[in-house]
User: Fold this.
Amino acid sequence: MLSIIKRILGQMKNDKRSLGLLLFAPLLILTLLFFILGDSNYIPQIAVYDMNEKFVAELENHATVILETEKPEAADYLEANDVDALIWADSAGTHIELLEKNSKSVAALEAIQDTTQALQPTQNELIVDYVYETAGDNQLDSLSYVFLGVISFFFVFILSGMSFVRERFGQTLERMLMTPIRRVDVIGGYTLGYGLLAAVQSVVIILYAVYVLQLQVEGSVALCTFVMILMAFSAVSVGALVSIFANNELQLVQFIPVIIIPQIFFSGLIPIDTIPFGLGNLCYLTPIYYGCTALEMIMIQGKGVVEIWPWLAGSVVFIGVLFLANVTALKKYRRL
Amino acid sequence: METIVCEVSKSFKQQQVLNQISLTIEAGRIFCLLGASGSGKTTLLRIMMGAIPADGGSVTIGGIAVPNRQLLALIGYMPQNEALYEELSVWENLKFFSGLQRLNWKTFAAEAEVLLQIVDMAACKNKLVRDCSGGMKKRISLAVALIHKPKLLLLDEPTVGVDPVLRRKIWLYLKQLRNQGTTILVTTHVMDEVSQCDDAALLRNGHIIAKDTVKNLIDQTPDGNIEELFFMDKHPEKEVISC
Assistant:
């Protein structure tokens, strides 16, 4: 088993480009995502009708304010003039009309909230209306954990799947099995060897995300890293298992969308209990679900081991099941 | 080790590749399995090691029934294609496979030096395999098969792509191994290699059509050309077209 681990690390050492891709490509993608989804200092455009002067003055500190003398029809007005929000007040309270939920409307809402807070909470209630109502509450900037999980899973999956396919077709697998080595040791060596590389990758990603990109982590960074490492191990096993069903490298690549895309659905991008026909229950079959849920609880909700242990246990069980499946699958290459 | 193949059959999909093959390979001999490409030589070798199951029949090596995991420590296998790790150096490849055979470092280092001399690769042992030529890979692969001093050597077309000088050197070494008691099974479709071996069997259409010492086989032919044996098939069957 140790021989296999050493060999995998040696192979990587002599293949600098693959190693570089494993470690730095995720950072590149994360950085890109950070800038795409991150705080772009967008100044919202807010139209105001018949509000008191103090409010307008304060709002101008937070947004570009357009004063309207007639109350416009919200839907047409917002769309036609590229305005993010429209505010007016009546006896019921302060009305805020927004077009749809996106990062711009979030910025507008924040500006308005900042304004009302600065002016001391008014007795008037804030009534928020969207022209286009969308299901769910997704604010992209709170989904950092999804990207951390998916990106690291993706790269590790490709690495382990590809190397296993190559090993099978270069017949080095057969040669390896024509020694007294146990099948358990082959899979164990593989999982640990690539798992070790994947663990390094996880640590690099999380440190980069937290200390360079300044990603918000409410809970413990160490615990995050641990969850990422568990997820990386399951990615190695999934890669090895899928490679059994691929007859060549091309087919493995074709498996990527089949394996990865459904996992993204269950990673927390879409709230699982809103998925119809009980399809949400499929999440228990996707290793990313366990990892990403745990990551979400740590990073967003600031939970600790006590709260997330069921998901950690889920990850471990998953890795165990995949391990046994892989050991059994090797029977195809040697009967014992 | 004496190897006994008893009534082994194997078919892939509809095609019968091996049909009730029985074969005894005596210990301490170089045995040549001769056959055209696609005649099932590699399949027979795989069955003998226990890599794939036969449809029927049995294989025993040194009295132990195949498959047996411990038995594999006594077998050295050189596959037809190189089956080496391209990203590793020559030395690292040897080291890895010796690790799988649980050789300790000292035995390995001494043995590896000797083997690299024999296959003429000592000068470039730190070269990465991906930078080696086809013939070099073949030689490294042979060294890998020999690293744990196996009692039974299964070599699948070992000297294809190796130049004549080195080929002679390799044959000399194989004979030396035989004299030390190693049993060697070589598959080939090159007829002139047969003369280096002690015994030979001819595989054709899933049957062994002849099996004897090389000397006797040559005596049976009218002009001393062992290729003639393929045309002297006593049980001519309809040619099996295998594609």
